[in-house]
Amino acid sequence: MIMNKKIAIIPIVIIIAIIGAVSQMNIDETTETETVEIETVEEVEAMITIPVKAARPACGPHPECYIPSYYVTKLDEPVIWKNEDSAFHSVTSGSYGEPDGMFDSGHMDPYGTFSYKFEETGMHPYYCTLHPWMAGNIKVER
Questions:
Q1: 126 touches 105 (CB < 8 A)
Q2: 100: in domain
Q3: Could you say which DSSP state residue 57 is in?
Q4: Which of 64, 57, 63, 49 is nearest to 110 (CA)?
Q5: How many CB atoms lie within 10 A of CB 140?
Q6: 12 located within any domain
Q7: What is the span of the domain harbouring residue 102?
Q8: What is the SS3 string spanning 46-84?
Q9: Angle (CA) 73 89 106, round 5°
Q10: For 127, which of 2, 43, 69, 72 is 20 to 30 Å away at the CA?
Q11: For the CA atoms of the chain, what is the radius of gyration?
Q12: pTM of the entire predicted model
């Protein structure tokens, strides 16, 4: 019986010791604030993608040869075309057989890029000299 009393008293003593220790702790009620730096990112230039398999005739006449095939931009803002295909392509102003001479990327290497800043408002069609089914339009606004 004495043993049972000792066993019952031990948990009570432990609980009292824990309560006493916790009550003696200095709890700082002020919360720490963390300063977070926000990084500003410059606006990404317009990018038109020439996707994988654009060299295949099945790409055209659907608007999937240049993505997007219709793009609206502002004067003097660069537009970038990126060739993500493993084939050579071009970005040439005008329409197939009738280039207008405004811009021409020449043959773009696979995974290469071409950039152009439009200085005239209006609609500007373009195409690939190597793949006549590839065509797109840029609308330039003020």
A1: no
A2: yes
A3: G
A4: 49
A5: 20
A6: no
A7: 46-141
A8: EEEEECCCCCCHHHCCCCCCCECCEEEEECCCEEEEEEC
A9: 80
A10: 43
A11: 34
A12: 0.66
Q: Assign residue 68 the CATH number of its domain.
A: 2.60.40.420
Overall domain count for the chain: 1
Domain-embedded: residue 37: no
- The phi, psi pair for 138, rounded to 5°, reads -115, 125
Residue 63 near residue 69 (C-beta atoms within 8 A): yes
Residue 24 maps to a domain: no
Q: Are 129 and 92 within 8 A, CB to CB?
A: yes
Q: Are strands 78-83 and 46-50 parallel, antiparallel or unpaired?
A: parallel
Q: What is the pLDDT of residue 132?
A: 87
Could you state, in chain order, the average pLDDT of each consecutive group of 10 residues for the chain (142 residues)? 61 69 58 59 69 86 84 94 96 94 96 95 96 94 94
Q: What is the largest CA-CA distance in the chain?
A: 109
HSE-CB of 127 using CA atoms within 13 angstroms? 17
Query: Within a 10 A sphere around the Cβ of 79, how many other Cβ atoms?
Result: 22
Choose among 114, 113, 91: nearest CA to 104. Answer: 91
Distance CA 72, CA 141 (A): 7
**The length of the chain, given as a count of residues:** 142
Cα distance between residue 84 and residue 82, in whole Å:
6
- Which alpha helices (DSSP H) does 25-136 contain, by range? none
